[in-house]
Records
---
Amino acid sequence: MATTSPPSVNGRLAAPVDRAAERTLREEIRVAVSRLLGERQLLTPGREDEERIRALIREQVAAYQRRAATINAPLLVEPEAVEQRLFNGLLRLGILQPFMEAPAVEEIICNGPNRIFVIENGEKRLVHDLYFDDDEELRQLIKRLIGPLGRRLDESSPMVDARLPDGSRLNAAIPPATTRWCCVTIRKFTLRAFALEQLVELGTLTDAAAQFLDAAVQAGVNILVSGSTGAGKTTMLNCLGASIASLDERVVTVEEVAELQLDRQLPDCVALQARAGNMEGVGEIRIRDLVRNALRMRPTRIVVGEVRGAEALDMLLAMNTGHEGSLTTIHGNSPRDALDRLATLAMMAEERLSGEALAKMVARTIELVLQLQFDPRTGRRRLVSIFEVAGLEGNVITGQELWQLDPTRDRLVWTGIQPRCLQKMAARGVVYAPPAALEDAR
C-alpha cells in the first residue's frame, strides 16, 4: 500500500538539521515558559497565554538563528515550521497534532516512539519518518495531557484511559503493563450524522429502513445497537435518539465518555457521564451508579452509550419498568451474539441472577437489534441487519431478520416479514406502513 507523508504546517517532514536543533530549543523554551507562566502549562491555556508563549518561541528561534549565523553553523531550514512544532510539543499533542487536526484521520496509534500508525478514511497505515526522540518524550507528552484531568501514569498506575478536552479518547500503557515501550491509542471523537436521514445520505442504511427505525423509536421499541469497534454504533445511537422529538419525552443519557449530542437536540434531555477515581482511588462514578440515578430523575427513556459490565442488568430492569423505548449499544459480531453477550454481562451484577432468568429477561425486553458492520478495505460503515426478537425457545433467544444485507445487490433489503412491533406503533398512534413489496425496500 502506498503511503503519504504526515500533514504538517508546511506539508513536509522536519528537516534533519531542524530536528536536531529542536532538541536544544525545546528544553530552553520549557525553562523560559516555566519562568513566564509558573505552573500554568495547561493543554488548553487562555488566548493571552498562548500569544505570550508563541512570542517567546519566536524570540528563542530567532536567537538560535542569530547564534548559528555568528558561529557559521547551519541555520534552521524552516524556522516557522520549527516554531509550530515547538508550540504543539509544549501545549498540544506534539508531532501528533497535525493528525488530530486532519478531518480524515480517525485514530492515532503509537507502538513506542518509533512506530506511529494512523487510521485515515478507514485505512490503517504506518507513518514513515515520523517518530519521537525516545520513549521518555512520548511518555512525558501523555503525562502532560492527562495531568490537568487528574490522572497519572507511572509504575504504580501503568495504564490510563482518559478523555481529552475535544472529546477524543486516550489510552496509554507503560511497563510493567507493557513489555517494553509506552503504547498510546488516541481515538478521535467523530459523529458523522445527527439524524437517520443523514445516515441514508451516507449510505449506511436505506430510506425504507430509516423510516421503519424512525417509527420504531417513536413507538417506544427497545433497541440494542450491535457492532465492532469503529462500526458507527455511537453515531447510530445518536441518530436514533434524535427521533425522540416529543415534549412529553424526558430522556437521560448515560455514557462513560460523553459523545452523544442528544442534550443539544432534544427539548428535555439530561446527559450524565461516568468518572474514574482520582489518584487516591476515590471519587469514582460508575455507569451502574448513573443508570440507577437516572431512574430517580423521572425519565421516560434512558439511553446508555454502551453496556460493558454489570450495568447491563440495570438497563434491562429500566426497560422493564416503564422506560420503554430505551436505547443502548454493545459489542457484538451478530444480533444473536449481542443478545447472548448482554445476558452474560448482566450476570456480572452482584445480584447473581441465573443465566436462564437473564436469557428470559433479555428475550422479553429487547425488541430490535441493529447490526452494524465496518469494512476496513473500503472504510464503509453500514447497517447489515435489523433483527426482531421473537422470544425464547428453551434457553435460546430466537427471532428473525426484518432487513438483511443482500450480497448480490450489496444492499440492505426487506425480507418481507411483517414486524411484530407494528401493533405497538398502532397503539402509540405512530403512522407507518411496511414496504408494499420487496422491490419498494430496495
---
Amino acid sequence: MVTITSSWLLGFGFLFVLGLATGRPLLVALGAIVVLTWCVSWGWNRLALHRVVFHRSFSTRRAFVGETVEVHVHVENRKAVPLPWLLVEDTFPTGGKLLLRGEQRIYSISHATSIASHQRLSWGHTLECRERGIYRFGPAEVRSGDIFGFFTSPRAETGIDSLIIYPRTVPLPALGLPPQRPFGEVRGGPRYHEDPAWFVGLREYQPQDSGRRIDWKATARRGALQVRMFEPTVSPSLMVLLSVETLAPKEAVFGYSPPLLEQAVVAAASVSRWALEHRYSVGFLTNGTSPVSQEAIRILPSRNPKQLVVLLEGMAVVGPLYNHSMAETLWREAHRLPLGATLVLVAAYVSEELADTFQELQGEGHRITLLWVGETPLERELPGVRVHDVGGHLARLEKDAPFLRPVPLSEVARGRT
C-alpha cells in the first residue's frame, strides 16, 4: 500500500507552487491532484469509523451441554459516507472454563467487506455446546480507512460478552437410583425442619440441643447458654455436596481425572434438578474454588423458582482446584448446614478424615447419601451412609453421548457468512 508521507506532501506542494510561479500547467495539475487526493483521503479516514456500531447477539446466553447457540456479529454504518473497505476481527473462546485457567486461549474470526451508507451487516456462527463453563467473547477490533487506501483507522471494541453452558442433567433412574425415596427419606407425615435463613430468636440451652446452635455472643452477654431458634418449615432440605478430589493423594501429583470430575458434576446437577422438582429446599457446597473469589462455592438452600439456575451456574464453573479438602470444607461449613438436612455427597475419593466427618454429621441428625463416581468400587466401610455406585451408569451415558467429554470449542465452531 502506498502511503503519502508528510515529505511527499511537501514535495508535491512545492511542485504546485513551482508550477504556478513558472506557468507550467503540468506541474500545477500534478501537485493539485496529489494534494487534493491527500485531503480527501484524510477527511474520509477521519469519518470512516464515525457512527459505525459493532455488537454481538446470542440466541441465548445460557444453554445446556449438547445444545447449540447462534452467535451473530453485527456492524452498522449509521452515516451517509460509505466505506469501501471494513475489517472486523472478533475473538472467540477455544477452551472450556476460561475463568478457571490462568492463561486464556482465544482465536480470531475476521470478516472483510465494504458497507454502504446506512447499511447493516451480520455474520452468523453456530456453536455446539460440548463442555460446561463460562465462555467469554471479545474484545474485537474494527478497522477501516479512505477509498484510496492511504490511511487506516483502527478502533478497539472492548465489550466482553459471556455465555454460560450448564452441565447436563439426566433422570435419576439413568444414574441407577430408585425414583422413589432415593436418599432414604422416612415414610410418614410431613417432617418439620428449621430453616437457618429465618432466625426468630434465642432461648436457654437444653441437653438435647446441638452444640452448633449455641450463640456464644448472646451467652456471654446473658451469662447462660443461649441457642438460636429458626422458623420451622415442612419443606425438607437437601444439600448437594461435590468433592473435586478425584484422585488419592499419592496419585494426585499427576493431576486430576477430568472424566471423573465431569461425571460428578453431571450427578450433582441431576440430583439438584430432581430435588427441586420434588419440592425440596436445595443448596450446594463444593470444595472447588470459585473463579472470582478463590473460595469454596457455597449456595444456601432455597425453593425459589430461580434456584435451579443459581445452582447450575455454580456447578458450571466448578474446576479441579481447591484450597481445602472436602473433609475440612465440611467442618468449616457445618454450622451453616440446615438442621436435619439430607446430605448427598458426590465423590470419587473418600479419605479417612471425610469418613470421620460423616460420623460427626450423622450425630448432628443429618442423613448422608454417597453417590460414588470412582472407577473402582468403594472399599471403605461407611456405617450409616447410604451408598450408590453411579460411576458405571455415567460411563455408559458418556459413551452414548460423546459431548459429555471435554472438547475444545474451536473444533466445533462453524462460521457462515
---
Amino acid sequence: MFDLDKWQEIFAALKKNKMRTFLTAFGVFWGIFMLIIMLGSGRGLQNAVYEGMKDFATNSVFMWTQPTTEPYAGFPRGRRFFFRNDDIEALRNNIPEIDIIAPRLQAGVGTSSTDNVVRGIKTGSFTVNGDYPEWNLIDPVKMLDGRFLNQLDLIHKRKIAVIGDMVKEILFEKDEEALGQYIRINGVYFQVVGVFSPLNSNIGFGGDKAQSIFIPFTTLQQTYNYGDMVGWFAMTAHKDVPVSIIDEKARELLKRRHKVAPEDKQAIAGVNLDEQFRQITGLFLGIDVLIWIVGIGTLLAGVIGISNIMLIVVKERTKEIGVQRALGATPRKIISQIITESVFLTTIAGYFGLSLAVFLLEIINKALEASGGEGQAFKNPEVDLNIAIAALVILVISGALAGFMPAKRAISIKPIDALRDE
C-alpha cells in the first residue's frame, strides 16, 4: 500500500539537505551516464570494424614473396623470387585443407605509374588487378551493373574489365552507361563488362577497392609480359579447419619449391586473417572490460557518496529518530525509512543518467546516418537494453546497501540518548 506520510518524510529530508542531495545524486547520475556512453562508444567502434569485415572470408590467409634473408642451395642472401603458375596446382594437390585458392597479379608491380587508365580525354591512376573469379568468394564486391570475371574470361584471355564505382565516376559522365565501353589500361584497350562497389571497407589488399579494376589473371600475364608470374595467393580453409594449418603447410611447400631456407621467416610474407580477427575480438573484449572497470569505479564513487549523505542525514535526525523509537517505531521501520530514502535518491539519479546517455547515443547515431559517416570508423553506437537495465538494477541494489550502514547506526542509538541529542 502507498504510504503518503512516508514519502512526504523522504521528500522533506532530501529538501532539507538539497545542496548535498544534489551533489550526491549528480555523482550517481554521472557514473551511470559515463558507463552507458562508454559502452555505446565501444559498441559503435566494434560495429564499424565488424561491418567492414562481415563479408570478408576471415578463415583466409594471404601470401607474397620478399627478398630472402638467408643464403640457401647456392643462392645468395637477398635473392628476389616470385611465385609461379605451377605453384597453383602444387598447392591444390598437396594441401587438401585448402578450400579456395585465388592467385592475384597487379599491373605495374615494382614501377611507379600515374594516369595508367585513359578514356577519351579523361584519365586516372587506378589499381589494376589480374584475378581469378574465386577472388570474389574471398573478398566479395557488390555488382552495381554487369558481371564479375568468370572462368571463360581466364581460358580465352579476354580483354575485359570490371571497374570500381569511383573509376566509373572519374572516367564516365554522371548518367553515362559504362557497360560495353572501352578504356585503355597501360596502352591496351579493355571492354567494361561490370561496375562494382566494395562491401568491405576495413580490409583491402592492393589499394582502394573503389578505385580498382579487375581483369582476368591470364590476360594480365600475357598482355603485359609477366610470363607465369604470380603476385600473391589468397587461400581459405575448409569449414572447421584452422587456416593456420594451410599457412604452415603452404609456406613449407613454397619454400621447398623455390629453394628458400626453411628457417628464413622473411622470404614469404603473409597475413592470417583468422588470427587478425581473433586479435581484434580480444582487443574489443579488453576494451569492454576496461570500460566496466572504469564505469563501476565511477558508480561506486557515487554510491559511497549516497552512503555518506545518509550518515549525515541520520546524524541530523538523531532526535527525530529517538522520538519515533519512544513512540513505538520498530527498528525495522527505521531501517526501511533510511534505506528507502537511499534507494529513491539512487534510482532517480540513475534513471536520469541512463535516459540522457541513451538519448545522446541516439542523437549521435542519427547524426552519423545523416552525414553519411555510418560504416566508417564509427557505426550505430548502441547499448544492449538488458545491459542497461542490469546496470540500473545493480545501482538500485547498491543504493540499498549504501543506506544499510546508516540505517544500522540509526537503530543502534538508544531512544533516551537520541532525545537528549542537541
---
Amino acid sequence: MDTALYLGLFVVSLAVLLKASDWFIDSAERVGLSLGISPFIIGVTIVAFGTSLPELATSIASVFSGESEIVIGNVVGSNITNIALVLGLAAVVVKKIELEYNIWHIDMPYLWGSAFLLWLALRDLHFSLFEGILFTLGIIIFLAYSFQSQQGEEKLESMVKPGWKTYALLLLGGGLVYLGADYTIFAIKKLSAIAGINPEIIALSAVALGTSLPEVIVSLNAAQRGKASIAVGNVLGSNIFNTYIVMGIPSFFGPLKVPPNINDLFLPLMLAMTILFGIMSNNRKITRWEGAVLLMFYAFFCASLIEGAF
C-alpha cells in the first residue's frame, strides 16, 4: 500500500514539475519579448535554461533533503537519455536528420568539453565548491559567446505588454516547480527505502527519463513537422546546460555525494554517447540506422540499471 502511495506521489509530483516548468518558461518568454529582447537571446537564455529547470529543481531539492547523490545520477542519466533516446527516436521517426548549420563550429566542441570536464571532476569521487564555480563559469562563457555572435540582431520595437495572467502564471509556475521537485525527491527517498534500491539508480532511470520528457516531446513533434534538426540543437543545448548548471548550482547549497559506481559504467557510457553523437553528426546528417544504434545503447543502459538495482 505504501509503495503504491509513494509511486503515485512520484508520478503526480513529477507531472506537476513538468507542467509548472512549461508555465514558467512560456510566461518568462512573453515577458522577455515585451521588453524588446530578441527571440534568439530568449532562446539561449530563458528557453535553454527552462529545459534544464526540472533537472535543476530536483537536484537542488535533493541537496536540501540530504540525498545529493541524486544530482550526479540526474545529470548523467539525463544526458544519456537525451542522446540515446531523444535523438535516437527522432532519427528513427524520419529517414534522415539533415543539419542546417555546422554544429562543429562551437556547439559540439563545447559539448565534448563539458562531458570530459565532468569526467575529470568526478574521477576522485568528489565534487568541490571550486568545481561548482568552475562549471558555472563554463555556462557563462557559453552564453557570452552566444550573445556576442548575435550582437547585430535588432531588438523588437513594439510588443504587446503581457497581462496579469502572464505574471500570475510566472509566479505560480515558479512555486509549483519548487513544490513538485520537493515532493519528487521525497517520493524517491521513500521508494528507494522500501525497495532497498540506491536513490541514484532511481535518479539515473525514472527521474532522468521524467525530466527529459519535454525534450522527447519537442524533438518528436519537430521531426514529424520536417524540422528534425531542431532535435539536435535541443539535445546539444540541454546537455550543455545539464552538465554546467545542474552540477554547478546545487554545489553552492551543500556538498555533493558521488556514488562509487558512477565511474564504473554510467559516466563512461555518457562520455561514449557524447563522442558517438559528435561522430554521427560530423557529415551534417544522422540516418535512421544511426538512430537505431542509439536506441540500442539506451536499451543497454536500461538493462544495466535493472541489473544494478537487484
